[in-house]
Design brief:
By secondary structure, the protein is an all-beta fold. It contains no helices and 23 strands. It is globular. The structure holds beta-D-galactopyranose.
């Protein structure tokens, strides 16, 4: 059977049901009551290079977080802005002058709230905090609660994972991107607990995406080269808190060493096809970030090994 992802975002601009480009970068997807909700960074307007940095610190004004919904993973309806940015309020985490990246949403069955975590930063990326927002509805509007450094540790690229037992975890690049952390969240998912582990020590891994298959956890990360592509790598564990065993690059074929020019953001389980997943990557256009596209590829698990092909 033709993998569903073949017909999805294959590097071209993905259009929503109004025919407009989907603006949801560094995305995350939540499946809730038969509907997939896609959340992402709204990148709009001029890209500029932040002066005085020794790396390619290209950025656009923070546009807030978008939300799209779909029942078939092909047709995406724009559900509006899930989390609005603030204008002219430089002290506010959500000011357009800040960085708001990699939003992820999970549902808390106990509190009946949808909980969003995201990376909040300033121009030089040294603020490095996790922002938290909640809503009674999947599409929002989300109410911003504030930001935190979990256990006083830096947080940049991040993802969220809700396990089958209802426990949730925050996974993020920490220690100035040198080492990743996995931190268990409080029962309401609004706070980090003091239970956390350091993984991939000094390996400089970013853009974590996690999924579970047949009782094993898989964590795909990118290297650390800003908006420029690099080789992905994955690791396997029996528990979210590890130990994680590194298995190398899941990408196969031409341009596998640069993740087919993309950077992973999320692995989406296809609910109607158990065991099938979509690897959702961003094709960053670093000098015109609004023009960044998406690469959504079928991800397979073959004999316990993760394989991503660019068909
Ligand atoms: C990347 C990261 C992106 C963004 C970018 C800024 O390494 O994965 O989410 O933060 O750096 O240059």
């Amino acid at each position: 059977m033709k993998p569903i992802a073949d017909t999805l975002a294959n590097g071209s601009i993905l259009l929503d049901t109004d025919g407009k480009p989907v603006n949801a970068h560094g995305p995350g997807v939540m499946y809730h009551q038969g509907v997939y909700y896609l959340f992402g960074e709204i990148k709009k307007g001029k890209t500029w290079l932040v002066p005085g940095q020794n790396w390619e610190d290209y950025r656009v004004s923070a546009g807030g977080i978008s939300c799209y919904s779909s029942t078939d993973l092909k047709h995406w309806k724009n559900r509006g802005i899930a989390l609005k940015p603030e204008v002219g309020d430089p002290g506010n985490d959500l000011d357009t002058g800040r960085v708001i990246e990699r939003p992820k949403v999970i549902y808390n069955a106990r509190t009946k709230k949808f909980v969003m975590w995201m990376h909040i930063d300033k121009n030089d990326y040294n603020y490095s905090r996790g922002g938290i927002a909640i809503s009674d509805n999947p599409v929002g509007p989300y109410q911003y609660l504030g930001s935190i450094r979990p256990n006083n540790q830096m947080l940049r690229d991040m993802t969220l994972y809700k396990d089958d037992d209802g426990k949730a975890y925050l996974i993020y690049s920490s220690e100035d991107n040198n080492t990743m952390h996995v931190c268990q969240l409080s029962d309401d998912y609004l706070k980090p607990t003091t239970t956390y582990v350091r993984i991939f020590e000094n390996k400089r891994r970013e853009s974590p995406s996690i999924f579970k298959n047949k009782g094993k956890y898989y964590l795909i990360t990118s290297g650390c080269s800003g908006w420029s592509p690099n080789a992905a790598s994955y690791a396997v564990a029996d528990h979210v808190m590890g130990p994680w065993k590194e298995e190398g690059n899941p990408c196969k074929g031409a341009n596998a060493e640069v993740t087919f020019f993309s950077q992973g953001a999320f692995v989406l389980p296809i609910v109607s096809q158990p065991g099938k997943y979509i690897f959702m990557g961003d094709l960053w256009n670093k000098t015109d970030l609004e023009k960044s596209a998406y690469l959504w590829l079928p991800l397979r698990i073959n004999d316990g090994k993760v394989e991503i092909y660019n068909p």
